[in-house]
């Protein structure tokens, strides 16, 4: 699928392996020779991200200069606001503002929040669950208010059933009982270059599906 899609930049998440354990077939992906990998310090099997690019980046940095840990998206009721997530959101937004002051930003990945009721199948039943608490949704609203745009919702404001995550339980994906947790967020001044933002929901292999941002730059 990656070869058919032929991206200029491929971003991977939840790689769950250290640099030395990246599979050789990923290392050898044609057209993506510049590869950068990061995983949790001392925990190579936990989380992890990768960035593969056709053209060598001008600069690559790791981390956001802070060390807050975002709350994981577990399906359980929580009685209090997820404070680690709130701290992360604030630190991450400041990081994005610093980047945006240098050049326009494309932020992509699983942001672990469904922003609006249209972004998940059962909003009423999930109001107290991680990923749809008022505090998390407000954090995303603050991000958008700081000069950033949810590219998919900008182009498809009324699209329903557009989800990127489905639990493995209960045949959720076959019934499209899902959440939109994965985003391509762009600096507002990139909107003139935004051609499309796609959810590749037919691509299997994970409880998430890929998303694609198309920009003319």
UniProtKB/TrEMBL annotation:
GO CC annotations on file: mitochondrion; nucleus
UniProt site positions, description: Important for catalytic activity: 182
Residues reported to bind Mg(2+): 14, 110, 112, 207-208
Annotated localization: Nucleus; Cytoplasm; Mitochondrion
Any Pfam family hit: Exo_endo_phos
Residue ranges that the Swiss-Prot or TrEMBL entry lists as coiled coil: none
Cofactor(s) demanded: Mg(2+); Mn(2+)
Residues at the site labelled Transition state stabilizer: 112
Keywords for this protein: Cytoplasm, DNA damage, DNA repair, DNA-binding, Endonuclease, Hydrolase, Lyase, Magnesium, Manganese, Metal-binding, Mitochondrion, Nuclease, Nucleus
Family annotation (InterPro entries): AP_endonuc_1, AP_endonuclease_F1_BS, AP_endonuclease_F1_CS, Endo/exonu/phosph_ase_sf, Endo/exonuclease/phosphatase
GO BP annotation list: base-excision repair
Residues under site feature: Interaction with DNA substrate: 208
EC identifiers of the protein: 3.1.11.2, 3.1.21.-
Main location: nucleus
Cofactor note: Probably binds two magnesium or manganese ions per subunit.
Catalytic activity field: Exonucleolytic cleavage in the 3'- to 5'-direction to yield nucleoside 5'-phosphates
GO molecular function: DNA binding; DNA-(apurinic or apyrimidinic site) endonuclease activity; double-stranded DNA 3'-5' DNA exonuclease activity; lyase activity; metal ion binding; phosphoric diester hydrolase activity
All residue ranges annotated as the Endonuclease/exonuclease/phosphatase domain in the record: 1-208
Family: Belongs to the DNA repair enzymes AP/ExoA family.
Function, as annotated: Initiates repair of AP sites in DNA by catalyzing hydrolytic incision of the phosphodiester backbone immediately adjacent to the damage, generating a single-strand break with 5'-deoxyribose phosphate and 3'-hydroxyl ends.
Official protein name in the record: DNA repair nuclease/redox regulator APEX1
Organism: Mohoua ochrocephala
Lineage summary: Eukaryota, Metazoa, Chordata, Craniata, Vertebrata
Gene: Apex1
């Amino acid at each position: 699928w990656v070869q058919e899609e032929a991206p200029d930049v491929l971003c991977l998440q939840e790689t769950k392996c250290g640099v030395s354990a990246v599979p050789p077939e990923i290392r050898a992906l044609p057209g993506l020779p510049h590869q950068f990998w990061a995983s949790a310090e001392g925990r190579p099997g936990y989380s992890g991200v990768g960035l593969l690019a056709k053209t060598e980046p001008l600069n690559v940095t790791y981390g956001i200069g802070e060390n807050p840990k975002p709350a994981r998206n577990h399906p359980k009721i929580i009685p209090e606001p997820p404070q680690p997530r709130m701290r992360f959101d604030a630190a991450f937004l400041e990081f994005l503002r610093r980047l945006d002051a240098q050049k326009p930003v494309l932020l992509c990945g699983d942001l672990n929040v469904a922003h609006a009721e249209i972004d998940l199948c059962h909003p009423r039943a999930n109001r107290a669950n991680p990923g749809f608490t008022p505090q998390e949704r407000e954090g995303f609203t603050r991000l958008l208010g700081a000069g950033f745009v949810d590219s998919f919702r900008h182009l498809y404001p009324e699209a329903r059933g557009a989800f990127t995550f489905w639990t493995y339980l209960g045949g959720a994906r076959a019934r499209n009982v899902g959440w939109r947790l994965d985003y391509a967020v762009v600096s507002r001044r990139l909107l003139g270059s935004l051609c499309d933002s796609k959810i590749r929901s037919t691509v299997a292999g994970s409880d998430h599906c890929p998303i694609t941002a198309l920009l003319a730059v």
